[in-house]
Design goal:
homodimer; 399 residues; alpha/beta; 7-stranded mixed sheet; 3-stranded antiparallel sheet; 38% helix; globular
């Protein structure tokens, strides 16, 4: 019998995929759907960076270096240095999106059966890369009541077994928006050094911090060999389709190992490397406008949410997501109901049920993730919808 | 102790990587190095396809669909149909290069410990994807004396164990240039059906067939559920840096499983999808010129090689590679010596030792792979170098 692999069976489908047909149906009925479910920013990609691609002058679209163009790696090192991060171009391997950085990191550091600890709720696709690498995810739960702060050190200690090889964080966090404090980063450093663990630090949303400064894992003194930074230009420059990320590490053995995986797939995409290289030259104040825009949206979203009876949403310190606790029975059912049975003034919203972000079964049932990637006007309309929806949702349930 | 993974240790480095520093040294000494070692075509990427990228008009570089833009998938299905291949757009998942198609195919069909049979010599990076997926490669040897024809069916039968799940072919072949005949494809069909195996068919060089018509594995009647096509635009349109490939299968369960891996990495690169979509509209005679050019080069290369005493090179039926048997002790040593100790009129050549393409230890020691990706003038000069080099190489050894 021709069977698919067990790995293929274990591979989780996208948690919102099952909702897509309902969104399509709603649109067919003429209902406008506000997409709060995905992290696709509406912010324009910087024109100067797009123009760099428009103006390329080569005649043969060649493979780039497997680690990415050296000129781009050198530029990217400048970008990190400007932010006070101690990174040399020789620490950088350009990857096909942040996704590939995660996969290469897992593949190079971890073997099948090894365990990684991830504070939950976490970015759902970590599960996919863990399955691809045969790695077991052990969640440590963070809670909405504390704004999804780093769980206490004892929780990590309890989760560590002889098979534990790494901790994965996303800072600022997707899906919670939580920004780790320097003190929390120090706590993590102590754990990884004490237990000889790798720290995979996903800093895709580094530019978007509102409640304080970003503290990069690359700046954890004494943990240079433990830290593997996973980065991407997707959110930074609103360039998700470019598929340009980076794996950064000072651990030479890991670097050389990741390079073998990078060589096997030949090279990262050429066009978007041009864009990414040009983007480093954007004026220093480039992010001010974007950040101000996201901050305004965050405040509208959170303020509106917390005014709805029975809703609680901690104010996220970074990224462009928030998790809200709703007075509902089941976030998967609610998300489907919003698309299938609800509309207000011919409009509805699509949200991501938080169940998809927890590894522990049963958690997230009354939580949804909302991405504030819509302009303030649309965001207000989306909140009007949510308000009305919660008034009439049949599965309403106060905590 | 922070260790790299066993998988990372097993991951093979690029077989020509160790030669790169010698090539760089030679260039520093002012020696011109003819690169016959890599499959980076010098043919220009079609201008119309490059122009399509120059003329993009979006303002946000968004994620594409995880399976690739639907408009491109529909176009690509047209391309296949024009070639007489029975492919619908719903069978296609656009991947990041052919590389990702191989990885997704392995991940979705095979589990760690499963075995795949590959006629050797084979594309060295299959080893890398096998290691990433935990899969064991079992080679079946093809021989230079028969021009690297498909090994006899008994050899496959001998190699099949209860753990065998698939056969991998590359047609026309990299590194041998061998073009499988329709009869050989039928033989393969009988094997995969009899033993319930998947057939991974890498058809990256489909356009470049000189000794007959290409017979795609997609046209094997009755094996629709067994066949997984791995494709790429890299060689077809000289667009290696675009990183656009495709996995094509009529097996719905495999398709759905591959989609889960595709969703985890979000999307293939956007810019080069524009290029690839535009390229499908090139005039029908577009490949005639390129094919004629490669044919001319093939004949120069093979004719010149076979005139050198002690050298044998079968005339390849496709792709742009040839494997030549040389009167040498060790192809790795010879390749290094060419760069380190040899030059003729301030020129030398870089070749790929064939040892890197065999899984069986000891094979390929007197063989090298030559890519005819240089213009005819350079190719003649490169052959002059080889001729002279073999006259004086200290490790000369007649068979």
């Amino acid at each position: 019998m021709l069977n698919i692999s067990n790995r293929g069976k274990l591979m989780p489908p996208s948690p919102i995929r099952k909702l897509v047909p309902y969104a399509e149906e709603a649109k067919k009925k003429g209902i406008k759907v506000y997409h709060l479910n995905i992290g696709q920013p509406d912010i324009e990609t910087p024109k100067a960076a797009l123009d760099a691609v428009r103006n390329f002058d080569f005649k043969v679209l060649e493979y780039s270096h497997s680690a990415g163009n050296e000129s781009y790696r050198r530029k990217l090192a400048q970008y990190y240095k400007k932010l006070g991060m101690d990174v040399d171009y020789s620490h950088i391997i350009i990857t096909t999106g942040g996704s590939e950085a995660i996969l290469f990191g897992f593949m190079s550091c971890l073997d099948p059966g090894d365990e990684v600890i991830i504070p939950e709720p976490f970015y759902a696709n970590y599960n996919g890369f863990a399955v691809a690498a045969g790695v077991v995810v052990k969640p440590v739960t963070s809670y909405i009541e504390t704004g999804f702060a780093l769980p206490p050190i004892e929780e990590f200690e309890k989760a560590i077994t002889p098979k534990t090889k790494a901790i994965v964080i996303c800072n600022p966090n997707n899906p919670t928006g939580y920004l780790y404090s320097p003190k929390e980063m120090e706590t993590l450093k102590n754990i990884i050094i004490k237990h000889d663990l790798y720290l995979f630090s996903d800093e895709a949303y580094r530019e978007f911090c509102y409640s304080g400064e970003h503290f990069s894992a690359m700046n954890l003194k004494g943990a240079e060999n433990n830290v593997i930074l996973m980065d991407t230009i997707s959110k930074r420059y609103s360039a998700c389709g470019g598929r340009i990320g980076a794996l950064v590490t000072k651990n030479k053995l890991i670097y050389d190992t990741v390079m073998k995986f990078a060589q096997a797939r030949l090279s990262p995409p050429s066009f978007a490397q041009i864009l990414a290289e040009a983007a480093v030259d954007l004026p220093d104040d480039y992010f001010n406008h974007t950040k101000a825009e996201y901050l305004k949206r965050r405040n509208i979203l959170v303020d509106r949410l917390n005014k709805i009876p029975g809703v609680f949403c901690p104010r996220p310190g970074g990224a462009f997501y928030a998790i809200a606790k709703l007075p509902i029975d089941d976030s998967d059912k609610f998300a489907q109901w919003l698309l299938e049975h609800f509309s207000y003034e011919q409009q509805t919203i699509m949200v991501a049920p938080a169940t998809g972000f927890y590894a522990t079964n049963g958690l997230g049932k009354n939580e949804v993730r909302l991405a504030y990637v819509l302009d303030t006007n649309s965001l207000h309309k989306a909140m009007n919808c949510l308000e009305k929806a919660l008034e009439i949702y049949p599965g309403k349930k106060l905590a």
